Amino acid sequence: MKKTNKKKRTHVPFRMNMLFFVVFLLFSALIFRLGIVQIVQGEDYQRKIERTEDVTVNTSVPRGKIYDRDGEVVVDNMPQNAITYTRSSSPDTEEMMQTAEKLAKLIEKETDQVTERDMKDFWIGQNEEKAKAKISDAEWASYENDELTEDEIYDMQLERITEEDLKELSAAQLEVLAIYREFTSGYAQTPQIVKNQNVTDVEYAVVSENLSSLPGVNTTTDWERTYSYDNTLKTVLGNISSSKEGLPKEMADYYLARGYSRNDRVGKSYLEYQYEDVLRGQKTKMKNITDKSGNVLDSEIITEGRRGKDLVLTIDMDLQTALEQIIEEELRKAKSGYHPFLDRAFVTMMDPNTGEVLAMAGKKYEVVDGKAEVFDFALGNMTTSYAMGSSVKGATVLTGYMTGVNTPGEYIVDEPLKLASTPTKSSWFNRGGAFGISDTYALMRSSNVYMFKTAMEIGGARYVPNGTLKISDDAFPTMRKYFGQFGLGVKTGIDLPNESTGYKGFVDQPGKILDFSIGQFDTYTPLQLAQYVSTIANGGYRMQPHIVKEIREPVSETNKIGPIAEEIQPTVLNTLDLEPGWIEQVQEGFRLVAQASEGTASSYFGDAPYKMAAKTGTAEGVYDGPLKEKNKNEMTWNVTLVGYAPYDNPEVAMAVVVPWAYEDSSSSIPINHYIGRRAMDKYFELKEQKASRKPSEAVIDQEVLTKKETEAAETE
């Protein structure tokens, strides 16, 4: 037994020794590893320890493109080299200035944005001793005694810097200042454009090679909006803010709440503004890894960006440009005579069955530095309004039907109306006789008296020679309500902001309802006039006009359009409450206007192969244009024309408006007819050309791509 115990005592120490030896090796390895971490990799790990947060930032992407209805590019993005600077959350001004000085040696930077205040601040920073000398010993003593603040001392230095002092700044220093100015104008952790105009390939390359010595600086690709048709339709397409401007101040909170950055470019007006959510795209999301000082240590892309979706317009740019040329030619021709107030003309064409706006052309004539210039004023079709004259008589006739005061085919006596204390009112073709006329004849010959008597009946009055009119107070609200069902005096609903509803005349006496009935009281926009005639053309449906036809997914291939993301469907805003045959009666009257020998537009459209239906208008009134301050109480005439074709199967409706066309009847010019005939001819000419020619290669590619991608999307 003793022998056994002895063997056990000798075995235990051996095992313990082995255990101690293993522990020794492990500790040795641990100490060796700690040495490597602290001595060899200590700096790297220290930087990692000091990292405090991952900051997610968004970088902009190009906006969506805009195409016309045939797939022609209207608005595109041109890529351009850009140099950016990302400011840290705790900027080191000395380091920023040093970086600006280095960058100034690599690129050329315009200094036109540098202000006098910028130069004064820079001068003080560059000339500390001279700046101190601007302050007297007594003032410094006051500063030491806390009688003057540091800010007050600085303001005194700024005030005392002279032009001669600023001339000391060299061109090279001003360039550094211009770059530094861009550095400080950005927001923390957000890339700020330093230069994106005329960045040469050499500048781009040399900056890229030196990024390691330029903290915060980076090179990237920016974009700029380009327009394929110069200024055509430019006022309707709208504008976007610049990279310097960023979010408009009045809308900043709105956009910031929706994930925008302050220096993002956004649509500021009209189409670019209206479809901002579609055109903006999905921004690239990047994660900036920063240290405690906010310096960016590394960046990585979280989500790849995607440019905005594309818009396909209802506009036919071939038709649009042709109409603009026609308007300009006719304006210049008319201005060759004595027509001092004539300065604009408008044409709106739309599909009366769908509300698609095919063209919205407007031109404005101005004399600039002694030279006659014609500018785009397409926007005036929806933002300016005028008295339209007899063009609206179709609405008056149908209002008579709907209120029950007239019936289709009913004859009314056309005669000069002699009312107490009122100048005689008559139709232009009947100054002294009295004879019965039908509704269609009234439209064909543009009878004023037919419309006057209709308005009297609506107002509960009957004509009594030399008597007074007792018009109900409900007359104006009633007629305006029914006119609104055609789109007159109300918003058309077009997919653009800031649409005008026109001006409702001040009712100082109920008898003004007579002027209202012939279009010489309230004012309407050319677009409202186009919606009104479309409502007659299509049988009584007020269609919402729209300028965007489709929204398409973006694709990277050049000259190809992606699959449809959304198709804008026709929208009926209201339907006229009509009995069978009512609208056909007015349509017949419009047909007679353009095709019957006595029609007021037959001499211009009677031989047209497309069989036009139309209504002409002339409105007399006091001039209220841009020269009204110098020409008070001057009388002028607006001339208008509405129509559609073919009359028995309308596919296009048109409104022509030429305000202040002439000053007296002896100088009258039928510019509305000239423009209208040429415009309608051009529509059918282009239609025939497009039907006979083969699709271009670009259009074929677009169709194939659209079909394939759409099928793929449906499969998913």
UniProtKB/TrEMBL annotation:
Which EC class does it fall in? hydrolase
> Where is this chain's protein located in or outside the cell?
Cell membrane; Membrane
Q: Which InterPro entries match?
A: Beta-lactam/transpept, Beta-lactam/transpept-like, PBP_dimer, PBP_dimer_sf, PCN-bd_Tpept
Q: Which domain of life is it from?
A: Bacteria
> What UniProt keywords are attached to this protein's entry?
Cell membrane, Cell shape, Cell wall biogenesis/degradation, Membrane, Peptidoglycan synthesis, Transmembrane, Transmembrane helix
| Stretches assigned to the Penicillin-binding protein transpeptidase domain | 346-669
One Pfam match: PBP_dimer
Protein name, as recorded: serine-type D-Ala-D-Ala carboxypeptidase
